[in-house]
Amino acid sequence: MLIVRYEDLVADVDCEQRRIEEFTGQTVSVPFARFNEVERPDFDTSTLNGLRPIEQSLIARWACADHRDRIEQVLGELPELPQALIDFGYAPDTRWIEEWRAGMRQGMRWG
To answer: Are 54 and 10 in contact (CB under 8 A)?
Structure first.
């Protein structure tokens, strides 16, 4: 198994692409950095609001109040998520959940 962290992927697309290619023994026909230039009729991009270039500044967007309901839904549907975040190094413990909720109650962006 190869773990590819989203933050690492958007920070250095070419490096992560090489890691994936080395791991799988396959090369891609279109560089990851140019994925947004390839339109596929069999892939509906409407839920993604279209294809856009890689954008590092949006990494922490999940913590905005706009996404509160969806984050709560995900936490309810995936009780194993907090432990997975710890296991993959995204959080040292589960305190972030209450801190995030407290920030949401105060109408603030968390993080």
So the answer is: yes
